[in-house]
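Bug: token stream looks shifted between consecutive jobs. Job 1:
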Amino acid sequence: MMLAMISVIIPTLNAAPSLSATLAALRPGQGSGLIEEIVISDGGSTDSTKEIAEEVGAQVLKGPPGRGGQLQRGAVAAGGEWLLFLHGDTVLEREWLFAVEAFVADGGNTGRAAAFRFALDDPSSGGQRLERIVAWRCAKFGLPYGDQGLLLSRRFYGQVGGFRDLALMEDVDLVRRIGKSRLDILPVAAITSARRYRQGGYIRRPVRNLFCLSLYFIGLPTRLLARLYG
């Protein structure tokens, strides 16, 4: 049986410092034929993001900034039977290929989605503590964020309504529609840059994120949340 092909969709905005590593981690999937294409949905980068993407043969889409809209445009342009959404500063652990192949090959997963285990490129106590908190959040509430990636069939993506062009919380919005019962966390890490946590603080930034999430759940418009988030 031929394995279904995957389109990888990456939203970018001046992602040059991290994008090369993100793309390099995907090479085994390109070499095996599992990845059909890489779609870079750019929001107006002024650095070398476009050139880095084109070096590996990725398709580059241009449009207004805003991660929700960029992800939406990337999904529309993609041609694969499966869609894998990644952030431009996320590097998948080497074993990702085997976990993704197994998930895609299981016919029962066409109506399910999967995310990766959250990890940071920072072995400090603050980084490890945050990783444990995220693991608990995913196990308890089935709520991975966009920096954990998201894998689902094109058909299922359409059934749940896809990404919406929101100013913030586009990942939470989609994952909530998928639901905990239809979401798996793969035993492979998506390693994300800890830069924003080093800058914002391992306590202050997560507290701010939780505050914004709480406001989102009680119905505050995402355009106002985006102003608070900064």
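Job 2, same session, no restart:
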Amino acid sequence: MSLKLDNFLGPRQPVIFHLTVTGRCQARCEGCINALSFGRREDFADSWECVPERDARALCELLKKTDGRPAVVAFYGGEPLLAAEKMEAVRVRLRALLNGRPLRFMLYTNGELLSRTLKRHPDLLRDLWLISVSIDGSEGKHERFRRGTSLSRIRENLAALKETMGTPVLMWSTLRDEASLRDCLEEFLRLKARGLCDYFFWHLIETDRPISSFEAFCRRYLSDLAFLLETYLSWLSSGRILPVLPLNELFFFLLSGIRRGHTGCGVERAENFDLQGGRLLPCADLGEEFVLGEIKPSGEIAWCGNPARLSSLVSYRRDLGCEECPAEFYCGGRCPVLIKNSPERARQYCLLTRDLVNLAREALSEVRRLLKKTGLSPENLYLPYGYLTLFTDVIP
């Protein structure tokens, strides 16, 4: 009998609140999720500006209802560091309002402004529990997909950050149709060797079109997954855990009989919320269809939506045949954002997820053998590695 992830985590199950600090961004990334959900940035950016006093009080109200579970406030955007002073104001205000109650902060960033923030707001960066930096492979690939950013500058910024403080850094790669997982992994390994990144996460982009050359993409992706597993086993044979978050989570699930029991982000559970422009949302990337509350200038939340409606977000599971899928224990159902924008692409991703799970199953006996040989347990794969997928996005 399988054990649901919630039951395994128990009181360690975190509560996550994403705060959109600003809608502004200096980059022009191909396939920007904000543009997909909301249209032109100039049409929404101004309305997403954080009001620190209001938003800190709203967060405080939400945090009081978490029953003592670990809580994380994640700064989101746009590019949050364009409004670092607002992040700092929220952080300071929340620390005062919560009067010593444990709370962690994390940041999603493109990494361009880390050095500037280090000079202007060192206490802010020092108080971050985790920084997620978007890097989509080596220089040529990254700068093609994330126009307006410079990978060499991001590396310099990470070096300055790590020289000053030990804040863990997660390299987050978004795979577009022309991208290579292997290229992203190899860039991570270079950064890891220099002590600039600690963890690696990848996912496949959400967009409104299917993969046009799916068979060719599938061949490349399977080859890259084979390289990933070869690297993983090589590390494990020497007693090291390759800090690739989704793969460690998958192996832990297989070894421990764990099933996720919900979508990767768990949006349908109405436990984690996004604050964006004075509104409370179940997911900022879904658009404006599901507003759960309006945040008054005082910070009081006027609830206006029914969280029970969110169960309808995963009604597509019947159409996808999730209950019969051999990867359902890991996947839990595709991302509602992707289903909304391209059901056909979602079905393609279902096939790729099954491929990932099948390859992991084939390697499972060797993983089990190497864990025993090196004195590691399956739980060593999950804490801290697989656990950190809770603070990412969706499964690959």
